[in-house]
Amino acid sequence: MPKTDYQPGESYAYPLIIKKLLNTPLIYSPQREIVYSDKLRYNYRTLNERIRRLAGGLEKLDVKPGDTVAVFDYDSHRYLECFFAIPMMGAVLQTINWRLSADQILYTINHAEAKMIIIHNDFLPILEDIRGKLETAKKIVLISEAEARPDTRLKFTAEYEEVLQSVSADYAFPDLDENSKATTFYTTGTTGNPKGVHFSHRQLVLHTLSVAVSCGAYHTIGRFRSNDVYMPLTPMFHVHAWGFPYVATMLGVKQIYPGPYEPRKLLKLIEDENVTYSHCVPTILQMLLNCPAAQEVDLSNWKVVVGGARLPKGLARAARELGVEIHAGYGMSETGPVMSVATPQEHMLDWEEEELLDVIIKTGKPIPLAEFEVFDAQGNALPHDGESSGEVVMRSPWLTQSYFKEPEKTKELWRSGWLHSGDVGYIDEEGYLQITDRIKDVIKSGGEWISSLDLENLMSQHEAVLESAAIGVPDEKWGERPILVVTLKPGYKDKVSAEDFMQFMKKFAEEGKLPKYGIPDRYEIVEQIPKTSVGKLDKKELRRHYIK
Question: Distance (Å, rounded) from C-alpha 223 to C-alpha 325?
Answer without folding.
Answer: 10
